[in-house]
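hiii, so i know i said id send this last week but things got crazy w the move. better late than never?? heres the sequnce for the chain we talked about at the cafe, plus the structure i predicted for it. fair warning i was half asleep when i ran it
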Amino acid sequence: SFGGLLCDDMGLGKTHQAMALMRAITAGDALARILVVCPTSVIDHWRTKLADYLPGIDVEPFTGGTPGQGRVVLASYGIARNHAAPLSRARWDLFVLDEIQTIKNRSTATHQALSGVPRRIALGLTGTPVENHVGELRTLLEFVQPGYLPGEASFDRHYAVPIERDLPGARDRLARLIDPFVLRRTKAQVLPQLPEK
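okay and structure toks below
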């Protein structure tokens, strides 16, 4: 029931890796339910990929109201934020957040609404786990693996501030701490034969 962040570069198959986990969970539990929340711009991409790679699993677009009985419920961040109450009344075996950096700010209504959605496992997908500062990474990891990291003040003191000051060993200490729950691969590591963009 550990959660995690899949932070591979764009084009390395984060969606496919998430679908492999979805297949494993639904194969092992006939009643398992999965919630996928993503930007509106990729809902059709998810719907197409799920139909291609997980045929036979009911995918239900969620537009508000009470979620039906679909094994996989697919919602945009905006819809999930505005209709979080009915989503929070269900228990989700897997909660996939595509482009999880959307909720990198804990004070936003979207982050707060989705925090209340009960789940056994949360998986965040993003190619950019840190956009502005390392505290964003803490927010995302805290969402998918609550309670693992030290509190915000302690995290800032031991990791964020030393990293911002470029102190020796600071990045390595953080990397060792998050390594069990964050997978980050670049195209150069996985597909070195690809040309630059």
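btw The longest strand covers residues 92-98. thought thatd interest u
miss u guys!!
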